[in-house]
Amino acid sequence: MKKNLITIIIAAVLVVIFALLLFTFQVRQSEVAVLTTFGKPADKNIDQPNIYFKWPWPIQKVYRFDERVQNFEDKFSENLTADNTMLLTSVYVGWRISDAKEFFPKFTDGSVPAAQRQLEAMLRSAKAAVIGKHNLSDFVNADPSKLKLDQIEDEIKTTVQKELVAQNYGMSLDFLGIKKLG
Fold first, then answer.
1. What is the DSSP letter of 74?
2. Dihedral sign of CA atoms 139, 142, 145, 146 in order
3. Residue 130 CB burial class (10 angstroms; 0-12, 13-18, ≥19)
4. Which of 123, 128, 133, 158 is most buried, by CB atoms within 10 Å?
5. How far apart are CA 92 and CA 3, in angstroms?
6. Strand ranges (E), the chain
7. What whole-number distance in Å separates Cα of residue 79 and Cα of residue 138?
């Protein structure tokens, strides 16, 4: 009789654990989640760390995104300056997901690599446009007071940020800087 009671208690505990795994999900401090019902995102992001309830898989699914800053460096690329000098540049970028509900449908299941590829394409065109407006002396100069690197970085960042907002990607740039010149 004692063995049957232990077996029943263990079985009950396993059923409770299985039910909790099926009907709950956790959002961590550094995450934001989007809960979808039959593939349609909910009205708001779930961004507070806690345990939440949901329906099992065919009805609802949870997509988690990292809210922390994502870093990447673009490839060395050639751009013409305003005085027709070929300049090789590479920039580094820090971006984050600012609105997961907007981010999720724009990229396949909220794919961060797809978002980074899109951001890299925007960055390449903005970089070419901004560099094309400046002379080589704005980048390299013996007189440090005539350098305009900070202004150029701000122009590139502003251009990309405006495009992110216009396209409603749910992403924002935290920082951008020129890493290499050649």
1. P
2. negative
3. buried
4. 123
5. 64
6. 24-27, 31-37, 40-41, 50-53, 60-66, 70-73, 77-80, 86-97, 171-181
7. 14
**Structure tokens given for 163:** 């495009």
Q: Please, which residues have CB within 8 angstroms of residue 127's CB and are 6 or more apart in sequence?
A: 74, 77, 79, 89, 91, 156
Report the distance separating Cα 99 and Cα 121, nearest Å.
Answer: 20
Q: Is 16 exposed, middle or buried (0-12, 13-18, 19+ CB in 10 A)?
A: exposed
HSE-CB of 167 using CA atoms within 13 angstroms: 18
Q: pTM for the complete prediction?
A: 0.77
Check the CA dihedral 167-169-170-172 and report its sign.
negative
pLDDT tens per residue across span 32-72? 888 888 877 777 777 788 888 888 888 888 888 888 888 88
104-126 per-position pLDDT tens digit: 778 776 678 888 888 888 898 88
Q: What is the pairing mode between strands 86-97 and 70-73?
A: antiparallel
Q: Are 144 and 95 in contact, with CB atoms under 8 Å apart? A: no
User: Helix 149-167 and helix 112-131: axis angle, to 10°?
Assistant: 130
Contact at 8 Å (CB) between 91 and 123?
Answer: yes
